[in-house]
Amino acid sequence: MRWILALLLLSLPAAAAEEQVVLGLSQDRVAITADFDGSEILIFGAIKREAPIPDGPPLEVIVAVAGPSEPVTVRRKEKKFGIWVNTDSVLVDSAPSFYAVATSAPFKQIISDTEDLRYRISIKRAIRSVGAAMHIRQAQDFAEAVVRIREAEGLYSIRENTVAVDEQTLFRTSIDMPADLTEGDYLTRIFLIRNGQVISEFETTIDVRKVGLERFLYNMSRQQPVWYGLMSLVIAIAAGWGASTAFRLLRES
Amino acid sequence: MHIYLPIAEVSVNAFLLLGLGGMVGILSGMFGVGGGFLMTPLLFFIGIPPAVAVATEANQIVASSFSGVLAHFRRKTVDLKMGCVLLVGGLLGAALGVVVFNYLKSLGQVDLLVKLCYVVFLGVVGGLMFVESLNALRKSRKGGGQVAKRRQRGWIHALPFKMRFRTSGLYISVIPPVLVGLCVGVLSAIMGVGGGFIMVPAMIYLLGMPTKVVVGTSLFQIIFVTAFTTMLHATTNYTVDIVLAVLLLVGGVIGAQVGTVIGSRMPAEQLRVLLAALVLAVCGKLALDLLLQPAELYSLGTDGGH
Fold it and tell me: Is residue A6 part of a domain?
């Protein structure tokens, strides 16, 4: 009896992760250099399984890449005394600086709403806004505004049908990262979905970092602000004086 | 060629920045204004975060003013004594302005108040200058030779602490220039500009300084006030982007040289009509932004309001 129980327990995790992701990334670091102009990351992988491919609807894949989250203050303008003034504001507790979702089929068709809620996959679910004040009308509009504004800036995107899945075993997609990236760890999640249920989740991070001169200047501005400020002034004045002298010499010659 | 700005954390075209710097530099050299009141809104348009735009602009004004003032020193059109008196007021004003700025920031209305400041000041100054300089133009055309008009001896001459300003040919109390410097300092800290567009008319109409000296002297004062502002921003908000500043000032410094040459060849009255028209145009644009319904009613702030 005890024997059977132990066997059951052993087989449980195996059953839960019947199909697992083996992942490859074209790069797991994005280096922000002085001429950084955006980046394209190829995300590809295979699905490891011990048993034959189950019957029923095919396997679907969702890839979600999220930049570091931070609180965002959203302000709304209203017309007062003839001019447009910021009136209400809502603090959205955490919103990723970048969020891209790539799916292998239309989002609504492949994943159930409860699973989306549980794993916070769709863009509107990735934003958390708990502390919206009660006295503000349509607090939901504020969270929607974050999505709308960032979508317009190309920072948030949902790209349906951009994950290619071959033979329910191989998948690949590419995520475009815009030039205006913030530094940080970009959490990359891959979901395997069958029948609207997430059957496996895999997480990894893409490291987005400034390098070289960018790194040096950024660190200096935070760690030695006085010297950074003085250096900025000296460089500015030197350039001003240099150009002035060059111009005069040019005219005199 | 795109370039990634380390502090602003955006990627912009380097030639666009050089071009903007050059254009604003020409105007700065011609009129003796720092150009901040034009450059700061332009930087907003190309997507630089406002806090970075304001702080970096202060740094860039230092450089473009420096090369401008050197040219004026050579032509002996800087009143050093007057500049120092203005500077005393300017530094006090800038410190005061930062306090006011932080207070407005805590109220969450700083954007609106900055814009309202722009509209009110640009409107009043631009309007006054436009009317005055048009009248002067008409007169000089009719009367031919210019008769040096004696300044009326009003309340300004009744004040104590008189000082002789040889370069300007003035003998007046130090109180008005210190007050002018103070006001400009406050405004420059709040609005993120050098303040030349306020100071130049104030020096001409309030203090009665000769136009040719005004430009160099205001540039002299602006250098120190904006350097002070730059340091304040760099140490408290970490928003000075040196890469952005260098690109703007490479264009700006060359532009300022060209502008100084153009300015010295143009008659003073026409120069003032042009400056007035420019000030009014910027004022009109900002006023429209406040009056018309914006396309996006919501705006995002990243500091999280803490």
Answer: no
Q: Do A228 and B242 touch (CB under 8 A)?
A: yes
For A146-186, the pLDDT digits (tens) are 888 888 888 888 888 888 888 888 888 888 888 778 888 88
Do A206 and A220 belong to one domain? no
Same domain, yes or no, for A250 and A138?
A: no
Domain carrying residue A191: 17-210
Whether A19 contacts A200, CB under 8 Å: yes
Instruction: Please give the average per-residue pLDDT across B30-49, as a whole number.
Output: 74
Give the number of domains in chain B. 1
Q: Mean per-residue pLDDT for B219-243? A: 83
Task: Give chain A's domain count.
Answer: 2
**Chain B residue with minimal CA distance to A33?**
B4
- For residue range A192-242, list pLDDT tens digits in order: 888 888 888 888 888 888 877 778 888 888 888 888 888 888 888 887 777
Cα–Cα nearest to B198, from B125, B253, B256, B140 = B125
Q: Which one of B10, B11, B106 makes the best mutation probe of the A interface by having the most chain A beta carbons within 10 Å?
A: B11
C-beta atoms of A72 and B71 within 8 A: no
Instruction: Examine residue A215 and state whether it is found in any structural domain, yes or no.
Output: yes
Euclidean distance between CA atoms B61 and B58, whole angstroms? 5
What is the model's pTM? 0.71
Distant-in-sequence, close-in-space partners of B293: CB < 8 Å, separation ≥ 6? A79, A84
In a domain, B301, yes or no: no
Do A213 and B245 lie within an 8 Å CB cutoff?
A: no
Q: Give A223's contacts in chain B (Cβ within 8 Å).
A: none
Note the pLDDT tens digit of each residue in A24-33.
Answer: 777 777 878 7
**Inter-chain CB proximity A179 and B10 less than 8 Å:** yes
List the domain range (segments joined by +) for residue B159.
2-140+155-291
